[in-house]
Design a protein that fits this description.
The complex is a heterodimer of chains A (about 130) and B (about 110). With about 130 residues, chain A is mainly β. Chain A contains no helices and eleven strands. In chain B, strands 1, 3, 4, 7, 8 and 9 form a six-stranded mixed sheet that branches. A three-stranded antiparallel sheet of chain B has the order 2-6-5, with no helix packed on it. The chains are: A mainly beta (about 130), B mainly beta (about 110).
């Protein structure tokens, strides 16, 4: 079955950095676009970044552009999120998720919706 | 950039029908997706492309849209349906594509 497991979270001081990982299993990782989404305590869902299956295209929310970098290692079935210049506003549970793909034509394309999510990992930014 | 709006809370008695709205400018022209998030759990995809359900999602959950409103309808509400529900669309943010979530609706089963 599809599994997504995040790791690398924890407590970090303001201005610090952290690298999150998401280990994927149960599906052909290199065939799917992947994304990071976070949820601050008591708040709603906030999309952060998306990377195409090949890594050729990446997109970011304005709130993290220039500070966060998404990447992937298809050989190891791993998704990453490098987070720099962290502030208290970045305190949240971070989820990785798989984008549902439409393969009805000769090439597959993302459908802009996420069918499997990891349980999430807590990142706390505090002095 | 595009904004989607959800009411913060909806209450319904067991067995009744809950209708959760998601408002946005001409949202009927977009594919709308719905997620359920129970406390302490990851979101679960309930409806995608406005009306389609992933395998394993009961028919009690259905989606529709008209004009500026998309709706998630939950028929025969059960206690286990108490959760937060988020709508989501894909749109252009500034100058690039991006994902937009509504603020979420907390469904309370009375």
């Amino acid at each position: 079955q599809v599994q997504l497991v995040e790791s690398g979270g924890g407590l970090v001081k303001p201005g610090g950095s952290l690298r999150l990982s998401c280990a994927a299993s149960g599906f052909s990782f290199s065939d799917y676009h992947m994304t990071w989404i976070r949820q601050a305590p008591g708040k709603g869902l906030e999309w952060l970044s998306l990377i195409f299956n090949s890594g050729s295209f990446v997109y970011y929310a304005d709130s993290v552009k220039g500070r966060f970098t998404i990447s992937r290692d298809n050989a190891k079935n791993l998704l990453f999120l490098q987070m720099n210049s962290l502030t208290a506003e970045d305190t949240a549970v971070y989820h990785c998720a798989r984008e549902l793909m439409d393969c009805s034509s000769s090439t597959c394309s993302g459908m802009g919706v996420f069918d499997y999510w990891g349980q999430g990992i807590l990142v706390t930014v505090s002095p | 950039s595009y904004v989607v709006t959800q009411p913060p809370s909806v209450s319904v008695a067991p067995g009744q029908t809950a209708r959760l709205s998601c408002g946005g400018n001409n949202i009927a022209s977009k594919s709308v997706h719905w997620y359920q998030q129970r406390p302490g759990q990851a979101p679960v995809l309930l409806v995608y492309d406005t009306t389609d359900r992933p395998s394993g999602i009961p028919e009690r959950f259905s989606g529709s849209h008209s004009g500026n409103t998309a709706t998630l309808t939950i028929s025969g509400v059960k206690a286990g349906d108490e959760a937060d529900y988020y709508c989501q669309v894909w749109d252009i943010i500034t100058d690039h594509p991006g994902v937009i979530f509504g603020g979420g609706t907390k469904l309370t089963v009375l």
